[in-house]
Amino acid sequence: MTYQSLAQGAGPRPWPRLWWDGFLRTARQLDRRAWLVVPPLALLLVVFVYPVGWLLLRSVSDPIWGLQHYERMIERPVYLHVLWNTVVISFTVTSVCLAFGYPVAYTMAHASPQVRRLLVFVVLIPFWTSLLVRTFAWMVLLQKTGVINDVLIGIGLLDQPAALIYNRIGVVVGMVQVQLPIMILPLYTILIRIDSRYTQAAATLGAGPIRNFLRVYLPLSMPGVATGAMLVFIISLGYYITPALLGGGGDVMIAQLIQMQIEEFGNWGFASALSVVLLFGTAVTIGLIYRIAFPKELRFIER
Amino acid sequence: MDKKSVKAPPGALMSSVDPEFSRRAFLIASSAVAVGGIGTMLTPLGNRALAAKKFEGRKVVFASWGGSYQDAEKVAYCDPFAEKTGATVLQDGPMNAAKFRTMVEAGAPVWDVVDVTDTFLYSAAKDNLLEEIDTSVVNVKRVSPEFVHKYGIGDIVWSYNLGYSTKIFNEQNHPRSWADLYDVKKFPGRRTLNQDVVPNLEIALLADGVPMDKLYPLDVERAFKKMSTLKEHVIFWQTNSQSQQLFIDGEVACGTILNGRAYDAVKKGGMLAIEWNQNIQSIDYLVVPKGAKNKELAMGLIDEMTVAENQAKVANLIAYSPTNKDAYASVDKQITPWLATSPQNAGKGFLVNKLYWQDHREKLNERFQEWKLA
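YS: structure for the whole thing
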């Protein structure tokens, strides 16, 4: 289809016209308030779609056209290793967040209003300080001469200071602390909406507390688990400061690799390719978790 | 957007004015040149009259390596320059090779004077990233000739040393060679190494038994093989300040640290000491990135950095050796044992081979960074 034939309007209606017609029809059907989304959409277009398009383009065109950057990523084991690191660290952080966050969210959902307010306040405290400050605080706490090692040695649990920083432990501890609220809050909003009559009914029918939890409560809470886990996992995939400051040589994540490609080598093409992989990895994760954790029969909870 | 394409070509302007006007313009221009000439002749006199305010209200950006070193440079070089000329010296950094390159290639360097290592000077000069030193402003005679380069002036001599924690080791029992650094059985504990390829390959080869005078050209394969034996024990430091912190916090038993940074950490109460055996010396140069916006001020600042009194101040603050011989007279006695150029230290080490690195730096650093990730 050429622009000339478009202008003349010859032949069947060209697809841009059809698309525009469809758009107008939908727009007419929309509630007027829906137009409020236009400014944020326009902003997203400028600050998100444009740079991402630019990255995509650069990953196949800098310095020459071709897929050389993607080939390099597959050919050299180190890059796959970093991708693997990223997934493993993100998965570990998500699991620990879930293990710590679920009981907190459960308590919040079933506590008296006063206790609930207090817990929400406690959970939100970390958001009051910057990520950088919190990470540096962990450096102070976790180092060999830090408070944690001093206490462990003081009470006789250790006779040598343990290596808690510049390794995987440091990275996971730092990331979990930052991300716990992100796990707890969505989980809490789902748990508080679970109708207590379901568990009561199960109990009446003879289910013990463990069975009741596993067969009734837990499945009903799955959308919260999925939302929390998805958020934590996705945010973890792109983490930069915490692994850079608390991690060792074996804990390099993809965001650090991207930074290194630009800072160290000025290699924008390869950095772009890595960003594209990160972006698609994130998209695939979102899709998978939605598919797995939001089976259709559970979606009534959402309404 | 390229700046040049915005400007109208000079011919376009000339053709649009009438001949009469352009003759007048010519006369004005030529008389301006004449006045300028007289002005130049009068400069010494005029300078005295306006001495304090030569660059009043103007700014020059200085980039270096951050931390205690840049603090010392600020006090010793930048503050006197600002006081004399009225210019404001903005501090930036840390210096980063890729950032430097990107800035110059994009045609808009934000740095005017940059403190770089000799290996970078040589590769950047080769790639035409630097402005020539204006010897009419910079009095190059102040520094020893071996520190004068067409594109840079050496300001300090320093060294990579084997540092060790005095909480773990003592004067009698401590790692004394790079081979000891690699020996985790004899000297247990975590190590810290520089995150750059220089001088890690040299260190690995020395640890593997290659003598100092037979290092170059480097046996790269052997070096990487040796480095892989130590890797799991190593924390790589990103900045010099971090190397100091790792020793102060007791996170590492031994590792690479710059002599001046070790002096600074010890002065501040850090429990560490350095070994001079097999020290690896290097020189920092002051350069002006190609296309720097404040070239005139940049050259003036570099000139200030060659002054003996100022260089002595840096030496007294952070134990880096001056390149102006006259500065040694004002260096404190207690600093001398910390200087890389002191006879008892210089003889125990060697100078990094910048000609080797000029040709191999980029490729090997890429390989090194990949090795680090694996």
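YS: worth flagging: Chain A touches chain B through 24 residues (CB under 8 Å).
IM: good catch. Also The first helix of chain A runs from residue 3 to 8.
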